[in-house]
Specification:
- There is one protein chain.
- This protein has 573 residues and is α+β, with helices and mostly antiparallel strands.
- It folds into 2 domains: 267 residues, Periplasmic binding protein-like II (D-Maltodextrin-Binding Protein, domain 2); 216 residues, Dipeptide-binding Protein, domain 3, CATH 3.10.105.10.
- It contains 17 helices and 25 strands.
- The strands form 7 sheets. Strands 1, 10, 11, 14, 15, 16, 18 and 23 form an 8-stranded mixed β-sheet that branches.
- A hairpin with a 2-residue loop joins strand 4 and strand 5.
- The longest helix is centred in the last third of the chain and has 18 residues.
- The protein is globular, with a radius of gyration of 24 Å.
- It starts with a helix and ends with a helix.
């Protein structure tokens, strides 16, 4: 029965991927030779990594995880990923991770240089000549100065929605002069560069932002390569070229002004068959994320597409609220894991395009990641299928006949829509009945952040980085701790990790705590799938990069140009 359910899901999405006829393309032999000289002008249409979701907020004080996705081409950060070190340019970094940037992979963006003056004093020197453009009703054009950085920090630090402890390591910021910002720390934090350098809450706004409605998209401005020019909720977000942008792109030793393109449009498309069709018919130049199930068909019917494969940096699990029965009992939580055939999900539901265990640490994080086969037997057991032991554990916990529990999930996720019947089937076989509540994303997120979510809560949560993935998921009172897990000893361990300057010691501590948290099973762990990015060959200077900071793609788009002659020759312009 289970295998039949998985197979039916696969068949449905093969049919969806094939539901529209592709427009006729010019034969490959008839296409002009690609022009590798950068070209200016043209438009870029993108189905982003979150193609089904419109902007959640334009106000940085709302602390939305998505803010950098929507404003990261407008508001720049002190630091960003160094695309000169991308795989496409011969470097080591693919720049697909949600927000993890090892030290070798980032550069100064608004920061020209920086140095530690003592163990708790960091001086950051801003680039000179970086301009905020004229924004009618908001501000006149002027240069970025240190007071803008101070304003931006205070704005998010004072937000009533701020994440507890996020900036507690910083006593204050000081504007030593117009181009020097000094961070005064009260203690070291291993995430200092991420927290207010290239992270989710690091965007730099002009201080004039204090005098306008921060939630109105028309008031969003920054020093970045693009400015937001049009927003239609649930439909599209358009970003127009900032002609006074300061940065350059180096190609064959020559520096070029960027952005190359006139505008970028994020297309919001809620239906999977529709966004696949939009790619096939050239209405999308890039589709940043799709499931494996569509890939073979697209490669067969649309062989011109270029491809990149990457392991998702969004963890996937069912959060089990440990502050409520029945999940306050570890035997019940372990039974939930043993009742779900995770190897079968990885093999059949994902067609082998998944990793059985890839959260909370990510395999791309080097020594921070410990393979499952190196973990204790009690952890390895959680990733096996053992319904007989699951039933025995439930009986020992006082649930010999199982129980009924509410599970919420977001209807915005095609993967989760299809996982639900599998989870229902697996769990029903050990007596656990799910009462399913699908939610639109805004409601789904609000339930968690207000702590009104159900005992079982199917979700995706970003890995972020090796330290944050533990803090946000397991520390008491953290916003992104949906299991409500709380243990003062674990809290202290997480604090000690952040205080540790020596990376090798941090790796040891992180690996040990990761094993402990996997074993305590506050989540029903699920496989992590591979995603695919596809783009048309007229998209130049691009290799499938997705982010250069926390969900931040803007600098990538600024370096892309469109070969319009090639696009025309292929019958799309």
């Amino acid at each position: 029965m289970r295998r039949a359910i998985v197979t039916s899901v696969v068949v449905v999405f093969v049919m969806l991927a094939a539901c529209a006829e592709k427009e006729i393309q010019a034969p490959a032999d008839d296409l002009p030779e690609a022009d590798l000289t950068p070209q200016y002008g043209g438009s870029l249409n993108i189905g982003t990594v979150v193609v089904t979701l419109a902007a959640l907020s334009w106000d940085p004080a709302d602390w939305s995880w998505k803010i950098n996705h929507d404003t990261g081409a407008i508001r720049e950060h002190l630091f960003a990923g160094d695309l000169e070190k991308s795989v496409r340019k011969g470097g080591d970094f693919p720049f697909v991770a949600e927000s993890y940037l090892p030290r070798e992979a980032w550069r100064g963006e608004l920061a020209e240089s920086w140095e530690w003056e003592d163990p708790l004093t960091l001086a950051v020197h801003l680039r000179r000549g970086v301009m905020f453009p004229d924004k009618p009703g908001v501000m006149e054009a002027r240069e970025l100065v240190a007071d803008d950085v101070l304003f931006s920090f205070d704005y998010v630090d004072q937000s009533p929605k701020r994440i507890a402890t996020y900036f507690d390591h910083i006593d204050r910021l000081e504007a030593r002069d117009d181009h020097t910002v000094v961070f005064h720390f009260n203690q070291f934090n291993a995430e200092w560069a991420y927290r207010f350098g290239y992270g989710y809450h690091s965007g730099i706004s002009a201080r004039e932002f204090a005098d306008v409605d921060p939630k109105d998209w028309r008031n969003v401005t920054g020093t970045g390569p693009f400015q937001l020019s049009k927003y239609i909720h649930g439909n599209s977000q358009r970003y127009s070229r900032n002609p006074g942008y300061w940065d350059k792109e180096l190609i064959d030793g020559e520096a070029y002004d960027i952005p190359f393109i006139d505008d970028v449009t994020y297309r919001i498309i809620k239906d999977e068959a529709t966004f696949l069709t939009a790619l096939r018919t050239g209405k999308l130049d890039i589709l940043e994320a799709m499931r494996w199930i569509a890939v073979d068909h697209l490669k067969e019917t649309t062989p011109e597409l270029q491809w990149n494969r990457w392991l998702s940096s969004t963890g996937q699990f069912v959060s089990l609220r440990v502050d409520q029965k029945p999940f306050d009992d570890i035997r019940v939580r372990r039974a939930m894991n043993l009742a779900v055939n995770q190897p079968e999900i990885a093999e059949l539901f994902y067609g082998g395009h998944a990793e059985l265990m890839a959260y909370p640490q990510h395999p791309d994080w080097g020594d921070y990641f410990q393979p499952l086969e190196e973990m204790p037997a009690s952890v390895q057991e959680l990733f096996t299928y053992n319904p007989k032991k699951a039933r025995r554990l439930l009986a020992e916990a006082g649930y010999p006949d199982g129980f009924t529990v509410t599970m919420q999930f977001c209807s915005c996720s095609p993967t989760h829509n299809d996982l639900i019947p599998l989870l229902e089937d697996y769990l029903s076989r050990v007596g656990v009945k799910l009462e399913i509540e699908p939610k639109e994303y805004a409601s789904f997120l609000s339930l968690m952040t207000t702590r009104n979510h159900a005992p079982a809560y199917l979700m995706g949560s970003g890995h972020v980085n090796p330290t944050t993935t533990l803090r946000k998921s397991f520390k008491t009172g953290q916003t992104w701790n949906p299991s409500m897990f709380s243990d003062p000893i674990v809290d202290r361990q997480i604090d000690e990790i952040h205080l540790t300057r020596d990376e090798q010691e941090r790796i040891r501590m992180i690996r040990a705590l990761t094993v402990e948290m996997l074993d305590r099973a506050p989540y029903l762990w699920l496989p992590i799938g591979y995603g695919y990015t596809a783009w048309w060959p007229w998209v130049k200077n691009y290799g499938g990069e997705l982010r250069v900071g926390a969900q931040r793609p803007g600098p990538i788009y600024a370096r892309i140009w469109i070969d319009r002659e090639l696009k025309k020759a292929m019958g799309f312009e």
